[in-house]
Amino acid sequence: RTFLQNNRMSEEQYTDRLRDQYLTFALQKIFANGSIPDTQVAQFARSVAAARTIRLAVADESAFAGKVAVNDAELQKFYRANQKAYRQQQAVKYQYLLLSPKILAERESVSDAEIEAAYNAAKGSLKPTRRVSHILIEAPKSADAATREKARAEAEKIAAEAKAHPEQFAEIAKRSSQDVGSAANGGDLGEIAQDGKVGSKALEDAAFALNKGEVSGVVESDFGYHILRVTDIADVSLAAQKDSIRSSLQAKKAQQEYNTQREALSEAVFSARDKLQPAAQQFGLTVQTQNEWVTRANAGSLKIPAAVVEALLSGDVFSKKLNSAAINVDGETWFIRPTETRAESTETFEQAKSRVEERFKLAESRRLALEYAKNLQKELAVGNNPAVAWSPVVQVEPLKMRQVLSDDAYLAFMQAVPKNGKPAYAVLDLPIAPQLMEVQSIQTINNPEALANAKRQLAQEMGENLIQSYLESLAVTVKTEQGIEKVSGE
Fold this sequence. Notes:
The protein has helices at residues 2-6, 11-32, 38-48, 72-81, 101-105, 112-122, 145-164, 169-176, 180-183, 201-208, 238-271, 277-283, 306-312, 315-319, 349-381, 398-404, 407-415, 448-477; strands at residues 52-58, 87-88, 91-99, 129-138, 188-193, 215-221, 224-233, 288-294, 327-329, 332-342, 345-346, 394-396, 424-429, 434-442. The protein is an alpha+beta fold. 48% of the residues lie in helices and 19% in strands. The protein has a four-stranded antiparallel β-sheet with strand order 12-1-14-13. The protein has a four-stranded antiparallel β-sheet with strand order 8-3-10-9. Strands 5-4-7-6 form a four-stranded antiparallel β-sheet, sandwiched between helices.
């Protein structure tokens, strides 16, 4: 009933959903139960699960850097093909003022008389609290007498140990408490008050009868048997609460002052449209500066609020370097003014030439390294024996390789199948560098369990493909209309 209520569903609707699900499962099972030849299963298992014995040779791009011919014609061609890489985003450097209740609170003075008056006003609602740790031996009320008696005896034994060594209570709790949530923290339950929220009056009464550091006897609750220790007692006297009350009164005064100053500061900032310093001096604030170019892309990493970024890069604030209106961010107010601006543009070839040349050399070095690896592959494929710096031989599994290779590299890896006792070769265009791979052998799978798993996986995939094809065929033959679904008023 709770599930149906939470999902706003009637029992009939839920039954219909189950019926549809079971129908889908049944169709899938029918489609998947087609005959799959053992040779196909073995081939499938070999491709997805059989380990390959391989070794690799890296085509080091740096070795080809000296062979890259550089001239302006090639650089300009490369620049035109990759012009997006030299596009500069709109950017700004800026100054800002920050008006914050937190900053104002530090300036507010609070007298002892104000603190005492606030304490007297709140004294009636101040409830003493205690930080409590416990050890629980579970024995719910529903347990039989023998079970509860056994649990109590265990609790009595632990209580005796804890009383004898109260300083070891946390270690005893980690070892003995059956309350998994608190046991890891030495039995710590946090602060509690005598307000009924603990869920057991007996526990509250026992906790508030202890002095700091004392350990209780065995206390019974609906959950079982507890041993308690009070680790701290909150002091609710005026002396103990004084600093907290002072901070609270400062924050309250600061919020009132903030609301007043915000309007006045807005007027001062607006009066001097192209400078923040006069308003800063009038209100005792500091003009702060951001000297790094800020774009929409890097603003997050610089921890600049989105509203501030939008104001910086918009309208007259950006184009004329004028002061912004007040910007509200998480209870604080910002005023900003750009000091330098940079419109969105594409660097010219001359401006970007040094970086164009650097990227061109890297791209050409990689192309030459890839070309070298492919030439080695061709030589090895026809039986030649070129000098290759191979890595040690290792075994790899296709499923694990699938997780680390791109689609193209994985396809090349899977297509390298040794034949007639001879290795197969593939070139993997990997991000770190092109690599030549030699596949020496592919393991044969004779494990019945592995073959059975492969058959189930293959059957499921074939079934899903058949169902998808069936649905696509229905979409062609059955006329459907797109529109707004009618919703009943029920």
